Amino acid sequence: MGVFSYGPYEVVRINLRVASEPYRGVAVAHYDAPDGCRAYRLALWPRPDVAPHGWYWWDEGRMTRRDFRRPDD
User: Fold this and answer.
1) Are 42 and 26 in contact, with CB atoms under 8 Å apart?
2) Core vs surface per residue 18-40: b (16+ CB within 10 A) or e
């Protein structure tokens, strides 16, 4: 299981609700577990210094994802 880090031009934005509070997140990295689940390391706003940032398993019920990565050339 390897961790994939995103580069400066690979922006994956994830909106997340934690304890009914909305956060906007940018994925810093992800990894895929052997069972097919994906975890994202998220930097969360509006307050990154106090927001519950860290690793989050993908959950379609409380996350939405927008992928702004540039296509491969």
Assistant:
1) yes
2) eeeeebebbbeebeeeeeeeebb
Both tokens of 71, joined, read 């296509």
- pLDDT, tens digit, 9 for 90 and up, residues 36-57: 899 999 888 776 566 677 899 9
Q: Which of 67, 4, 1 is nearest to 40 (CA)?
A: 4
- Strands (E) located in 1-73: 3-5, 12-18, 21-32, 38-45, 54-57, 63-67
* More confident call, 11 vs 53: 11
- In 3D space, the residue among 67, 55, 50, 65 whose CA is nearest the CA of residue 15 turns out to be 65
- The pTM for the full model equals 0.77
Query: Which residue type does 13 have?
Result: R
CB-side exposure of 50: number of CA atoms within 13 Å? 3
